[in-house]
Amino acid sequence: MNLLTVFQQGDAVLIAVFATLVLMSVLTWYLIILRGLQTWQTRRGNQAAEAALWDAPDWQQAELALQHSNAPFAKLTRQGLAALRHHRSQAEKALGQACSSDEFLTRAIRKGIAQANAQQEGGMTLLASIGSTAPFIGLFGTVWGIYHALVNIGAAGQVNIAAVSGPIGEALIATAAGLAAAIPAVLAYNAFTRMQRVMTQEIDHFAHDLHAQLLTQSGEIDGVR
User: Fold this and answer.
1) 146: confidence class by pLDDT, cuts 50, 70, 90
2) Which one has a higher pLDDT value, 147 or 76?
3) Rounded CA separation 212/54 (Å)
4) What's the pTM value of the predicted model, to 2 decimals?
């Protein structure tokens, strides 16, 4: 049984089914590798940013150490510092009178958390879609292939096991191909969902500590560039 026979002898529908499943499988493994590397880089970046922040002697040195980092922790720190400076510059205007520095800082940090969480969701919808639809696409290919095999048997007017086993076996490969595309997508989706949940908790904890530290030492932020 040769899979290439499907592309050589199959009709347009069966070829389209297999091509779709191959594309789904390629996209799945591309997203697995890409998201795996991104998650690893993000975790390392957050650890480095957290160490650089809490080891800095003052906020000016902390901002200098984090100014080129793209880690969520570094972005939250820069957003928090920018929010306090902006609120302080508008203290005598309507914006400063509308809310306290605590409320303004909380709003800015929450926006940063939402942006960080949104970046972690890239590709998750596609993985979920592949995991849920690939088995049914493969099943459709199997049903379609068996249907045409039976039509050919009826047209020939006789049953020949050797002639039937090949086309039906090739049609059944569509179900296996659908599962081969769906299983890695489902496993990857579950794994990345758990990683995303853990990372979200880490960001929340860091944001809470950052918020408390910025409010406690807000008087020292005047020297930040």
Assistant:
1) confident
2) 76
3) 13
4) 0.78
* Radius of gyration of the chain, Cα coordinates, nearest whole angstrom: 28
Residue 131 class from Cβ within 10 Å (0-12 exposed, 13-18 middle, 19+ buried)? buried
pLDDT band per the 50, 70, 90 thresholds, residue 101 = confident
Q: Tell me phi and psi for residue 176, to 5 degrees.
A: -65, -40
Reported for 187-195, long-range contacts at CB under 8 A and 24+ positions apart, including other chains, are 188/28, 188/31, 188/32, 188/35, 188/127, 189/124, 189/127, 189/128, 189/131, 192/35, 192/39, 192/124, 192/127, 193/124, 195/39
Report whether 97 contacts 111 (CB < 8 A). Answer: no
DSSP the chain: --HHHHHHHS-HHHHHHHHHHHHHHHHHHHHHHHHHHHHHHHHHHHHHHHHHHHHSSSHHHHHHHHTT--SHHHHHHHHHHHHHHHHHHTTTSHHHHHS-HHHHHHHHHHHHHHHHHHHHTTTHHHHHHHHHHHHHHHHHHHHHHHHHHHHHHHHHTS--HHHHHHHHHHHHHHHHHHHHHHHHHHHHHHHHHHHHHHHHHHHHHHHHHHHHHHHHTGGGGGG--
Structure tokens at 32: 């697995």
Please answer whether residues 21 and 177 qualify as being in contact, where contact means their C-beta atoms are separated by less than 8 angstroms: yes
Sort residue 123 into left (φ over 0), alpha (ψ -120 to 50) or beta: left
